[in-house]
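Narrative of accomplishments. A recurring question from our advisory board has been how the design workflow behaves on a single, concrete structure rather than in aggregate. To address it, we present the structure tokens for one chain from the evaluation set, followed by the sequence designed for it. No filtering or post-editing was applied between the two.
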């Protein structure tokens, strides 16, 4: 079986966590890209990033979060309450957006008031993103608190050598993904579809890091054997996508997604830690992004323009979920900075996109040069 097929299979098999066969290890769930997975690995545990499931019933999540919250968060809570990830030894939730923060508060209260739900202990990863040294010091304190909490969950302290080794392993994942993006996505024609790329990146959120790195090395070695994918090259912005449905729908229109600016894609791996110190780790998460809930409109527009040019995108598509409005505010500046035909599709159901927007007169006119 090829490396790509293996990665696709792992991604399709979520939310189950493929635990290492040689020894049982603790499994620590996490929500959001602001969670320092290096600390979880250094604690001898498996980091497992939780996701939602479009089309699944979210009644239990709706009951506790209300229907005015991003449906991805409501779906994640519903899956947790149903035990879809099996036994988790702990759960770390990032403060990366309002929906994640409300999910954390709901989980904390459920553990306090309804212990029969058997939810894992939960901790908030409160990472800030302002470009100041005081922010770095704040984030470093929060990472130390998380380090101590993980030690209580996994039964032992996290040594500096273990942390340095974990940082090196996860940085190697990021290096390999960057190489794969250059080799498989940014070439023309692309060697993988956008849907396949989501799977390549997403498999790393459930696999042990060393096993994942081995698969990425095999993927790069097999690059010449992969098929070529022609089509209009699209850069995706807007909401993040923890499942493949939106990408599949966009690519069914004859397009190939070659880049994105959300943290289930390129923003998950572009910035490395670099150093081996706790300070370097804090700075990696402080400066990671720019994401819609945490970065300025100007910063988002600059990044989009750079990324569109880098991957040779011919169109910019912004798909924004219902109750995830922040990304839509960035679109006018992104459209102007990118300088390619652009379309905004707002208030979409979780896992869906109305591709009839691609046929609007303004988008078609821009795409065809006014003809």
């Amino acid at each position: 079986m090829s490396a790509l097929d293996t990665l696709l299979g792992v991604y399709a098999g979520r939310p189950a966590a493929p635990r290492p066969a040689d020894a049982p290890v603790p499994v620590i769930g996490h929500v959001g890209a602001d969670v320092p997975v290096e600390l979880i690995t250094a604690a001898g545990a498996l980091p497992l990033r939780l996701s939602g499931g479009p089309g699944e019933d979210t009644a239990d999540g709706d009951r506790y979060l209300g229907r005015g919250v991003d449906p991805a968060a409501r779906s994640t809570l519903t899956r947790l309450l149903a035990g879809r990830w099996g036994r988790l030894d702990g759960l770390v939730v990032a403060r990366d957006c309002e929906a994640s923060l409300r999910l954390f508060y709901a989980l904390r209260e459920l553990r306090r008031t309804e212990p029969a739900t058997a939810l894992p202990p939960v901790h908030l990863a409160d990472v800030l993103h302002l470009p100041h040294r005081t922010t770095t010091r704040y984030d470093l304190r929060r990472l130390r608190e998380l380090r101590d909490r993980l030690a209580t969950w996994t039964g032992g302290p996290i040594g500096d050598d273990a942390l340095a080794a974990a940082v090196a392993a996860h940085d190697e994942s990021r290096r390999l993904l960057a190489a794969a993006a250059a080799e498989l996505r940014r070439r023309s024609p692309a060697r993988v579809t956008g849907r396949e790329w989501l799977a390549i990146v997403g498999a790393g959120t459930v696999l042990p890091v060393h096993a994942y790195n081995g698969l990425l090395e095999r993927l790069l070695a097999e690059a010449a054997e992969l098929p070529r994918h022609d089509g209009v090259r699209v850069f995706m912005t807007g909401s993040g996508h923890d499942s493949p449905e939106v990408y599949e729908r966009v690519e069914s229109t004859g397009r190939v997604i070659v880049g994105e600016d959300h943290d289930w894609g390129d923003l998950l791996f572009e910035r490395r830690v670099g150093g081996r110190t706790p300070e370097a780790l804090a700075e990696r998460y402080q400066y990671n992004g720019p994401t819609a809930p945490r970065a300025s409109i100007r910063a988002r527009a600059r990044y989009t323009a750079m990324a569109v040019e880098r991957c040779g995108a011919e169109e910019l598509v912004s798909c924004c979920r219902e109750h995830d409005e922040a990304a839509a505010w960035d679109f006018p500046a992104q459209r102007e900075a990118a300088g390619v035909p652009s379309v905004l599709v707002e208030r979409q159901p979780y896992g869906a996109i109305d591709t009839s927007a691609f046929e609007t007169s303004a988008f078609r006119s821009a795409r065809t040069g006014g003809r």
